[in-house]
Automatic annotation (TrEMBL):
It catalyses: 2,5-dioxopentanoate + NADP(+) + H2O = 2-oxoglutarate + NADPH + 2 H(+); 2,5-dioxopentanoate + NAD(+) + H2O = 2-oxoglutarate + NADH + 2 H(+). Residues 19-459 form the Aldehyde dehydrogenase domain. CDD domains: ALDH_KGSADH. InterPro entries: Ald_DH/histidinol_DH, Ald_DH_C, Ald_DH_N, Aldehyde_DH_dom, Aldehyde_DH_Superfamily, ALDH_KGSADH. Its EC number is 1.2.1.26. This is 2,5-dioxovalerate dehydrogenase. Homodimer. It comes from the Bacteria. GO terms for molecular function: 2,5-dioxovalerate dehydrogenase (NADP+) activity. Pfam families: Aldedh (PF00171). Belongs to the aldehyde dehydrogenase family. It is an enzyme of class 1 (oxidoreductase). Keywords: NAD, NADP, Oxidoreductase, Plasmid.
């Protein structure tokens, strides 16, 4: 498929007039062709109107039809073949194996959501039948189901050009819920976005759905994104990116005459607690596996282990020696964009220049632009508590070790942490008591708590929580990965004494969709 540089507004390819966007190959710094047209208010207006026009029909598609659509998107993405991988490699600097894996994850999550749609429990069907004889007052017939919120604006993420972008988790979960989607493409990978966008656009047509179910708009800077979130026809937002960008969009959404939810995944430093017995038993192995997690994908994961906490002593010194050795030999991969590289270098320079922070190790330098030279720093618990700058995310392979005098101080530091996507315990059986003391704090701080693993690598499944209190996300009640992500785009409606032939299929007598429903309180296929 040849790239056109055009936006996809419903069924049409559309030329924009608001400047040009060029992807940059971060491994060379070269501009990539073609130029992509920037959109503006006219494109946002047209895409949102089409999405709104499509909403009532799309949301009432039968579960089977919606599932077939999700599967068609997955198949069309695979049919793009190697051209998709080659373009994504050029635009992101990510390696082939990583992008092939990410494509598998993208297709897998679309298919998983198809299965969820078919299974139907997301509809939350509940029936409390009328009790006309009840005294002192009769009960009316009450039936509840969940309906989608409306058109959703999705912002593609730079660090997952497939799995968190045009047809990534936000889009898949919004489609599954029955929401049309308008994507604001990330300016770092417009070609990848066009290719995937065309796969989605083709699936909409193949499945006979209204064209407004999907649109894709380009636009550098804040104006397109802001206009999209401000548009009254948009009813929710999915975002993965910087804290600054996410907070700006939260403000736009909150100032609307009718505010809407923004599901923004932003900034997390993912604390790892190295508990004493684990350190005593396997300090060297932990040092090596920590560096493997830290440097994976140049550290460009929001789940990257950005701080380590441990009680100071000889076992921690053994961990440090092992980590310093592994990190000192780590290669310098290319980062996603010149901007992300510049932000990484600035964050590392700020830590290196902090009088209360020691530089323990730097990775190897690399030839070529935008290379990520990994970094490991150390500080004390007191310094960490005194200086809020030490709690800020440095996006990339940089981590800060906090040497604590004792377990009590480790818990004090944990209490002062901001909201996190993850918190990790490296523990042995003898650490169970210390872990139990930390656990209530970690539950309040994080969306996912792990033992004896590393936080990078998020399983797409039913029990996953990829979320957490602010600033990890804008709404800690939800997840952006896994099937529970569909919940973000639904709201309940109760039907009281509505005549049988007006009721939605999900709530009709005889259970025509064969759903699990809560009937008079009891869950079953009533
Ligand atoms: N927590 C996480 O998972 C991630 C965090 N980051 C952090 O974000 C930094 C920059 O990376 P990047 O991916 O570009 O993230 P950004 O937040 O800068 O951009 C994400 C998307 O939002 C748009 N956008 C940004 N700010 C605004 C705004 N004020 N109003 C409207 N739209 C906006 C961008 O537009 P445009 O396309 O024009 O840039 C882009 O489409 C990294 O250095 C890192 O710190 C990055 C990736 C993931
Ligand atoms: O590690 C993962 O699989 C997901 C991480 C993520 O959501 C992110 O880095 O933005």
């Amino acid at each position: 498929m040849t790239l056109t540089g055009m936006m996809l507004i419903g069924a049409e390819s559309h030329r924009g007039r608001n400047g040009e966007i060029h992807a940059i190959d971060p491994s060379t710094g070269a501009k990539l062709e073609p130029a992509f047209d920037g959109g503006g208010a006219a494109e946002v207006d047209r895409a949102c109107q089409l999405a709104w026009d499509a909403f009532d029909r799309f949301r009432e598609t039968a579960p089977e039809d919606r599932a077939v659509f999700l599967e068609a998107v997955a198949r069309n993405i695979l049919d793009l073949g190697d051209a998709l991988i080659v373009r994504a490699m050029a635009e992101s600097g990510l390696l082939r194996a990583r992008l092939e894996g990410e494509r598998g994850r993208t297709v897998g999550q679309l298919r998983l959501f198809a299965a969820v749609v078919r299974e139907g429990s997301w509809l939350g069907a509940r029936i409390d039948p009328a009790l006309p004889e009840r005294a002192p007052l009769p009960r009316p017939d009450l039936r509840q189901r969940r309906i989608p919120l409306g058109p959703v604006a999705v912002f593609g993420a730079s660090n997952f050009p497939l799995a968190f972008s045009v047809a990534g988790g936000d889009t898949a979960s919004a489609f599954a819920a029955g929401c049309p989607v308008v994507v604001k493409a990330h300016s770092a990978h417009p070609g990848t976005s066009e290719l995937v966008g065309r796969a989605v656009q083709a699936a909409v047509a193949e499945c006979g759905l209204p064209e407004g179910v999907f649109s894709l708009i380009f636009g550098a800077g804040s104006s397109v994104g802001t206009a999209l979130v401000a548009d009254p026809r948009i009813r929710a937002v999915g975002f993965t990116g910087s804290r600054r960008g996410g907070v700006a969009l939260m403000e736009v959404a909150a100032k609307r005459p009718e505010p809407i939810p923004v599901y923004a995944e932003m900034s997390s430093i993912n604390p790892v607690f190295l508990l004493p017995a684990a350190l005593a038993a396997r300090a060297e192995a932990l040092g090596k596996s920590f560096v493997a997690s830290l440097t994976l994908g140049a550290g460009q994961f929001c789940t990257n282990p950005g701080i380590l906490l441990a009680v100071d002593g000889p076992d921690l010194d053994r961990f440090v020696a092992s980590a310093v050795d592994a990190l000192g030999g780590s290669a310098a991969p290319t980062m996603l964009t010149p901007g992300i590289h510049a932000a990484f270098d600035a964050g590392v320079a700020a830590l290196a220049g902090n009088a209360r922070v020691a530089t323990l190790a730097r990775g190897l330098d690399g030839d070529g632009p935008n290379r990520c030279r990994a970094a490991l720093f150390a500080t004390t618990a007191d310094a960490f508590l005194d200086d809020p700058a030490l709690r800020e995310e440095v996006f990339g392979a940089a981590s800060l070790l906090i040497r604590c005098p004792d377990l009590e101080s480790l818990r004090t530091v944990a209490e002062r942490l901001d909201g996190q996507l993850t918190a990790t315990l490296q523990m042995d059986a003898a650490d169970t008591g210390a872990a139990a003391v930390l656990l209530p704090t970690l539950e309040r701080k994080a969306g996912r708590i792990l033992a004896n693993g590393w936080p990078t690598g998020v399983e797409v499944c039913h029990a996953m929580v990829h979320g957490g209190p602010f600033p990890a996300t804008s709404d800690g009640r939800t997840t952006s990965v896994g099937t529970a992500a569909i919940e973000r785009f639904l709201r309940p409606v109760c039907y009281q004494d509505i005549p049988a032939d007006l009721l939605p299929q999900a709530l009709r007598d005889g259970n025509p969709l064969g759903l699990w429903r809560r009937f008079d309180g009891a869950l079953g296929r009533h």
